[in-house]
Amino acid sequence: MNRLRHLLPAGFAAGALVAAMALAAPAATAAQAASGRANVVTALDYNSTGWTYRQVPATTQVPGFAERGFDDSSWPQGQAGFGTTNGTCSWNNQTDVRTQWAVGTDILVRHWLHLPRDAQAVRIQGTVDNDAQVYFNGHLVQSVKSGKCAAGAIDVVVPAADLDCCNLLAVRGHDAGVAAYLNLRVTYVKPGQSR
Fold first, then answer.
1. Structural domain span for residue 28
2. Considering the chain, what percentage of its residues have pLDDT values greater than 90?
3. Contact 101, 82 (CB under 8 A)
4. CA nearest 108: which of 50, 182, 169, 171?
5. What is the DSSP track for 42-57?
6. Does 77 map to a domain?
7. Residue 65 and which of 8, 16, 75, 94 are 20 to 30 A apart at CA?
8. Position 155 pLDDT exceeds 90
């Protein structure tokens, strides 16, 4: 019991220190987020134009479609979001769907984007109903099984080794029926500048 009394003050001090650190952490995190937010640049936004796309049956293989050298010159061009205007997702409407994607098919989409050489934390985000394989410069960076339009299911930071100044984002979206949807954006962090 005497030993316990000796440890109690140290335990209270340690607990107080942990509590103080926990209370200070949100303030530091908020400050970091605010400064980081100011340096985030959108390279390709939701509802962007200039996508080449092709709809195929789910079992159709299109070798190399995600590669930079693939010839998509015969593919139509469209605007994201891709999908149907009927369905249970909040995005299945005429405002959010700019290019039709037939139910029960796969859609292959490609978009070129330029990034500055010092771009950091290049991040791809988006929503898909149902599944997607996301490629950046020919490298698979994420496989997503989102089910029914899980907002933000596509969310991956591209490995620095996969970056170039002229980059290709390619996605194979798969629809399992009822409704389809795909929309994406790409952001990056601009290195801090002295003021």
1. 1-38
2. 68
3. yes
4. 171
5. EEE-TT-S-EEEEEEE
6. yes
7. 94
8. yes
Model's pTM, two decimal places? 0.79
Least confident of 92-96, 121-125, 133-137: 92-96
Report whether 81 contacts 183 (CB < 8 A). Answer: yes
For 176, counting Cβ atoms within 10 Å of its Cβ (0-12 exposed, 13-18 middle, 19+ buried), the class is middle
As a three-state string, the secondary structure of 68-97 is: CCCCCCCCCEECCCEECCCCCCCCCCCCCC
Q: Are 66 and 170 in contact (CB under 8 A)?
A: yes
Total tally of structural domains belonging to the chain: 2
| Residue 133 exposure: Cα atoms within 13 Å on the Cβ side | 10
Q: Each residue of 7-46: b (16+ CB within 10 Å) or e?
A: eeeeeeeeeeeeeeeeeeeeeeeeeeeeeeeeeeeebbee
Residue (of 73, 124, 82) closest to 105 by Cα position: 82
81: preceding bond cis by omega (within 30 degrees): yes
Q: Do 50 and 123 lie in a common domain?
A: yes
With beta carbons less than 8 A apart as the criterion, state whether 170 and 108 touch: yes
- Give pLDDT tens digits for 13-42: 434 333 333 333 333 333 344 444 559 999
Q: Per-residue pLDDT for 107 more than 90? A: yes
